[in-house]
Every structure is written in C-alpha cells, then in structure tokens.
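User: I want to check something. If I give you two sequences, will you return the structure for each one separately, not as a complex?

Assistant: Yes, each is folded on its own. Here is the first sequence with its structure:
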Amino acid sequence: MSSYPLKAVTLTHVRYQKGDQLGHFLAWVSLVPVFISLGGFISHFIFRRELQGMFFAIGLLISQFINEIIKKSFQQARPETCALLEVCDSHGWPSSHSQYMFFFAVYITLLTYRKLGLICRNQLWVVLLLVWPMAVLTLYSRVYLGYHTVAQVFAGATLGAVLGGGWFWIVNNVLSGFFPILEESAFGRFFYVKDTSHLPNVLKFEYENARAARKHVSYKRAD
C-alpha cells in the first residue's frame, strides 16, 4: 500500500449543510454542467451527430482547458470554507462551473437567435428563460455553498461569456466552411455525421422526410 495521501474524485461530490433545503437545491444546481456534458452532449452525439453540436462541445472542452491553465498560473486560493469542503488543494480563480455555464448560455443563445431570427422570438424567449436563470443560479450556488468567492465566479462568468461568443464566431464564420468536407470524409460517413445548420426548420424537415419515407415503404409493400 502506498504511503501517499489518498484523494477522492470530486466530480459530483458537492457538499451542503445538513438540513439546509436551499443548499440542497443549489448543490444539485451546481451539477448542471455535469448533466449537460454527460446527458446532453453524449446523447446528442449518439442520436443527432450534428457538427454544430459537436463543435459546441469541443468549445466547452477548450474553455475548461483554458480555465485549468489560468488556475495553475495564478493559483488563487478558495475561500476559507474550503477546509470544510475538502477542496483547499485546488485553486478557485476563475470558477470553472461559472465559466462553463456562461459559455454554454452565450453560445446556445446566439445559436438559437441565428437559427430562428426575429420571426420566432417566442421560441428564443423559451431558451433565454431556461438557460440564463440556470447560469445565474450556478454562480450563486458556488458562492452560497462556499466553493468560490464572488470575484471568482464573476471572473469565470466573464471569461466563459467571452470565450462562448468568440468560439461561436469562429465556428460559424470559419469552421462551418469545412462542414461539407467533414460530412463527406471517412469519419463523417462512418459515424453518419451531418450538418443541418442550413435548414430553416430541422424538425419540420425531418418530420416531412420521415412521413415521405414511410409512404414510400408502404407503396413498395403494396406493390
């Protein structure tokens, strides 16, 4: 047995004060980035395989990599409550949770606006009312639970928003030109990777094509 001290994997190990219902709720809120990564993007690749979504996920990974570089460079300590939370061995500036959520919120808002435009403002408002309150709650949860200071979460949020907006511009003004090449590549053909960003209404397109395909199969069976 090694003599080195043991360290736990703390991906979902979020602590809150026993009996604190708000703390319990905010502990779950702080896990939203994990749910988005594991539930959202993995299921998106399995069932959708959209290049836009894949590059969205790549952007979030790059953002978190940048976060780790900054943390190791500045090595700013977490608040004093880190001792109770057993996270004093990690650095707090900028908050990775805040950076993640604001990158996600900015990117998905810009993507929704680009896809829907001014015609479908009601659908855009649905995204705004779901995503942004959750992003703000994530900030609040990290401070309330004692994992970060106010300055650390605002630094993370600011960096995430800047990186999210910048990555969106890069993907949709530079990298999107390579989407057709990726679709036709060996990787794209093997994994059925596709780009539907040129379609005004993907759900309508898929609905109509699914119905047309079913009618075609029915006609062939009848023959």
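And separately, the second sequence with its own structure:
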Amino acid sequence: MPSATMNAQVRAVWTSEEGSMAKQTAETRWAKIIQGTIDDIGETAAADDVDGQKRAESIAIQIALKAIKKRIEQNKPLTPLPDDGKLDIQDWNKQLAAIGECSWINCPWLFGECYMYRSIQRILNSSKHWQNYDVFKRQKDSTFVKSRAAVEELASRYMQIVADTRLAQNESKEDAKKLLFIEMTEIALWGNATDLSLLANLTLEDLQKLQGREAIKKSQRNIVDNDIDDVWAYLQRTAGQASRQIDIVLDNAGFEFFTDVLYAAYLLEAGISTSVRLHTKEFPWFVSDVIPSDVESLFEHLDSSECFPGREYLDQVIPRLRKFFQSGAITTTSDPFWTTPFSFHEMPSEAPALFKELQHSYLVIFKGDLNYRKLTRDGMWPHITTYEKALGPLGKESDVKILALRTNKSDVCVGVPTQSKVDALNEEAPGGAWIRNGKYAVVSFNEGR
C-alpha cells in the first residue's frame, strides 16, 4: 500500500483491511448514504412549491449521485475531483495523487470517506439552485425528534445541576464541584451515543455521600481511557486566568448538539470558562455533523411543543441558552480545515492560523469519533500507545490543551493504560467490539507541554 499520507510511526487503516470497520463501512454503508441523498433530493424536488428550474436541475444532480453510488458498488478507482469553483479542490487532488492508485474498497478509510462527502458537495456546488441545500437535514431533524424523552429528561437534569452548581459554589464544596463537572462532561460524552442510561443522575446530597462516588465510578466503567482527573486538575490550577475561552469542535447535530450546548452553558455557569466558541462544519459532512444552519434549527425544534410537548423544564432552559448566544458568551465559527481530507497532524502546516488560535485557547474539546480519528491520524496504533504520542504534532510541546470526548465507533483507540486491560476488554467484547460498538468511550486529555 502507498504510504505517502501516513505517519512513519503508524499505518492508517484501509478499506481493504479484512475484519476492519473500515472495510465493513465501505462495502455496506457508503452506497446506502449516497442512495439516501438521491432519495432526499427527489423528495424535496417533488414538493408542490418547488420552482420548475430547481426541479429540472434535481434530475441532473440525482444522475450524478447515482454515478457515484455505482462507482462505489463496482469498486472503481478514486479519480481527481472536477473543479467546482472552490479553492480546496486542488488540495484534494494533490492528496489523492500522493496516495497513488486506489479504489473505493482499497483506500485509506479517512481519506475515502471525506472524499465521498466532498464529492456530494461538489455536485451541489456546481448547481444553481441547490448550492446551500443540506441533503441530510431531513434525517437530522427526524432523529432529533425521536430523542424526545432524552431531551426532556436532560432539560430537567440540567436545571438541577445548575442549582447544585450554585449551591456547591456558595458553600465552597470542592468535591461536589468536581463531581458535577464529571457528570456534565459525561453527559457531553455519552450524548455521542444518545445513551443516558450510562449516566449516574445524582443529587448534590448524593454526590457528597459514598454511594454518589460509587455511582460515578460505575458510570465510568466503560471509559477505557479516562483522564477526567487530569482535566479537573488543569482547570483548578489555571482558574485564575483572566481569559478562559473554551473551544468545542462539534460532532453531530440534534441530540448530541443539544448536550454540547448544555455543556457550554454549564462551563459558563460554573465559572470554568469565560466564553465558549463552537466550531461547525462549512457544509453537510458525515451525514449528521453540525453546520451553521443547525444552530437556529436546534432552537426551532426546542421551541416547538409539537416536537417536545414536555415544556416544564425546556421553557426554563431555552431562555438561558439563548441569552448566552445573544450576549456573545457562546459564539459559533466555521473553518474550512474541518472539511478537508487532512488529519489534524497536518494542521500546523495546512491551517497555521487555526493552529495558532487553538494554541491560545484555554481548552479545546473535540467531540465524537471522526474528530478522534483525525486527532490520531486514523492510525492502527497499539491500544496502549499514549494519547500524547498518537496526537503527533498536536501532542508534546504543541501548547494546545486537547480534551477528546468520544464514544468508540471505529478502528482506532489509544490510551488504554495496560495490555492486561486491553486483554480484558477483548474478552469482554470480542472481535474488537469495544472499539466499534459505541458502548465504550474515551475521555482523553493532553496539556501540550
């Protein structure tokens, strides 16, 4: 296999690798994703209020998407992307040339998957009426509404945590402050799996008792690399800094984004952060990643009693969240680097301005599996490899304080403390299930010193 885009210390997982999630995804999921976009375009174009020119253009878009699907199903070579007027096309084609000859079922997984989403967007960019269309919005909205019970439960829990946080601050209960931080961090973590059953859900009174700590410990059992104590120690040691901007590089829209916004609000309410900046993707990416339009869409859904009829706590939470956005305490930004094929190891050279911004950040939180894959170069590292080493240029002496909150849904996982722990996990969840099924997770922190 060509290695031009790989770190000399680690090989990237390829879609041809037997037994890998990469191979399974390329063979079974990619064509279905493309078919979903075809169906979505067709459904939108069929609406009565759609302009005739837009409807006619949808036919050409569907034909182009069907061609991609066919190439995937027939394992055709990856070919240079035609120009769509965007500056990044040249970078994509340079990287493809560096990889060398490859096909859909025989390419670096990370590049191939990114290439697929950029191919979809290239077709939309080349149109007149569909350039700003989100082919995944219908799916994102449907999934979010299905999370009704979790959203309403979490709104209730958040208001309790706000009250507990204030009480803990007023009474200087340091242990309680830490345990509340752990719980809110775990909410943001498991929001990636939409599985609130993995949370402890404790009252402040519980948190001060032994059983509270035991419940927290139980909820952390499936976190295979857990640096939460190190994160808290860093935050406590640096709490006197005047500017404490936290950056959150987002993952999925809908329920997970709701948990991320709650987490941002908590960090402000607790005085941990002075401002929070949320990083979205510039265009529809990996089906459900947050794009700028998903921010207002979140509030539109939360405001809807049809989507979320349990209003008692939502009507308390929503104004608090809106106030943070309106005041500028929470802001959003998009950088084109997030939708490139590059791993984050290339950030210092490919996006030096972004890298410098993150160096000045108080803490950079990367959410979800794709961000974790890019942080670790999607490499087949031994699982006991340190997180710092796997971060490469973003690790030791990078001056970027990085926290990854990720439920395990791919082939890469580092930071497991010992080989005996790896062996135990392999016995508990055979066939690599613990790095793929979303029921295990990492809370990985590196201070970049």
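Because they were folded independently, the notes below concern the second chain alone. The mean pLDDT is 92. The chain is about 50% helix and 10% strand.
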